[in-house]
Amino acid sequence: MPTNYLRRSTKRSPPHAHQPTPERPQAGSQSVRLDIAGRRIAVEFHPTPSAQRILAALPLFSIAETWGDCIHFEIPIRGGRDRTARLNAQVGELYYWAEEERLLLIYGPTPISGRDTIRLPRPCNLIGHTTDDLDDLRTVHPGQKVQLLHAQ
Fold this sequence. Notes:
Blueprint: E1 30-36, E2 39-45, H1 49-57, E3 60-63, E4 65-66, E5 70-74, E6 86-89, E7 93-97, E8 102-106, E9 118-129, E10 145-150
Antiparallel strand pairs: 1-2, 1-10, 2-9, 3-10, 4-5, 5-8, 6-9, 7-8, 7-9
């Protein structure tokens, strides 16, 4: 599937509108809410093909699994890797693992991480990020409920 079919909006933001941080382009991003075992996390989805497919399927419900300091869960979305696919992650990023049809939320090192890098199991598509505090996710246990919903 081509990844260049998304068009940028020609609308201009008013001067008082929130300006995105320069490290992560936010043009066309959309806010969603991730509820994991009763914890609410605000996630900004990036304007990528994988993120758009997931947004179109919301709401999604699943069961949490853990892998080091990563929570992952299955979603019924099929797709392939896109230009955002990477092996190394940052805390607070949300990834789509195409081969396993899973979302991964990174809040620390995984079992295969190095000293200075957080390593994913395979190249995964970066679909979003959060700036919320994720330290309390260490108490999430496998089998707890996960919901991915439109932000309200």
